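Private note to self, pasted from the team thread so I don't lose it. Backbone tokens:
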């Protein structure tokens, strides 16, 4: 567990003795799109149908507005706080090449996000830039989600499957998602008709990976992202241009295909593949690694 004590005070939960938790590393490592930086070490976002502000000072993390009961029911799992990331980093750092990336992203934690939201968000992410992704996800939430009022400001939850399934293709096209509107429309209809998202989550990693790619707009990289960031499948290894550059920089010769990079990484890192991927991605992107 990566915190020592927790207490509730003034509509907030305060964690003390927190390890392996850096807001910038967590929220800027490509795994989420609804968190925004307010100031150094302070982020605010909408997740799990709630607004949350996260502030870190030294080894103390403040979550607000929330309660102790809500922390144990939602946020402890969302931030993966029961896991000791020191052990993961120690294991991965036995590889001297990876150790540099692990140290650079030392405060990364893998979030446990809502699967339906992640499916739609990462369909939007394909061949897209983060500001555009965030804008599109926010627009879909503003139009079709529920409102939350906090400190005089209005926030919007990501719409549930039932609500989004009633949205037309034309309406989706007007949300700034570009050519992905058709993929979103078809995938939402398919998920609603089949009503088997829970069953997909329960599949083994390889079966889940294959089945997710039966949905429009979900290819290998997007499937891995969905599995890693919302389904707790840590053998996933999403490969995009940054990860490929990092893997080529540290490990393999140039001109290696994305499937071969993925296979090589999963064999090398095993059940820690997803954690390794995040350290590599963050290191490569922030340092603008080129081959």
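Design output:
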């Amino acid at each position: 567990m990566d915190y020592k004590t927790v207490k509730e005070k003034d509509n907030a939960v305060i964690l003390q003795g927190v390890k392996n938790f850096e807001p910038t590393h967590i929220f800027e490592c490509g795994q989420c799109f609804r968190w925004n930086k307010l100031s150094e070490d302070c982020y605010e976002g909408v997740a799990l149908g709630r607004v949350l502000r996260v502030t870190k000072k030294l080894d103390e993390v403040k979550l607000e507005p929330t309660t102790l009961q809500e922390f144990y029911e939602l946020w402890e799992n969302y931030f993966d706080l029961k896991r000791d990331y020191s052990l993961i980093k120690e294991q991965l750092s036995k590889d001297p090449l990876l150790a540099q990336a692990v140290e650079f992203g030392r405060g990364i934690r893998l979030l446990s996000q809502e699967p339906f939201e992640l499916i739609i968000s990462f369909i939007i992410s394909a061949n897209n830039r983060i500001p555009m992704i965030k804008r599109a996800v926010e627009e879909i939430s503003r139009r079709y989600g529920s409102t939350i009022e906090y400190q005089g400001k209005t926030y919007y939850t990501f719409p549930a499957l039932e609500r989004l399934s009633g949205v037309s293709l034309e309406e989706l096209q007007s949300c700034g998602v570009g050519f992905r509107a058709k993929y979103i429309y078809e995938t939402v209809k398919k998920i609603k008709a089949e009503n088997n998202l829970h069953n997909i989550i329960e599949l083994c990693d390889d079966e889940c990976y294959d089945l997710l790619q039966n949905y429009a707009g979900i290819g290998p990289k997007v499937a891995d992202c969905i599995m890693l960031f919302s389904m707790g499948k840590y053998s996933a290894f999403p490969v995009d241009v940054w990860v490929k550059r990092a893997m080529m920089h540290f490990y393999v010769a140039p001109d290696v295909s994305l499937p071969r990079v993925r296979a090589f990484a999963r064999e090398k890192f095993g059940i820690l593949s997803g954690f390794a991927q995040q350290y590599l991605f963050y290191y490569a992107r922030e340092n603008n690694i080129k081959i």
